Amino acid sequence: MVLHKLIPVVAAAGLVLALGGCDEAEQGRVLRYEKGTYLGQPDSQLTEQQRQELRARAGLQSGS
Q1: Rounded to an integer, what distance in angstroms lies between the CA atom of residue 49 and that of residue 4?
Q2: Entry pTM
Q3: DSSP code, position 40
């Protein structure tokens, strides 16, 4: 008798674990890989202000 009550509990726990693995961040990611080729989303272009800030940071780090 206990086994008949345990089976639905185990099945429900398995379903919860399976659905918990469906993370929204994992959807739409690259599943096929080609050696030496980046297949992800293209990078967005930097604004001129961002470029200037990066140059200034690099200058500070290099001691210039």
Answers
A1: 66
A2: 0.39
A3: S
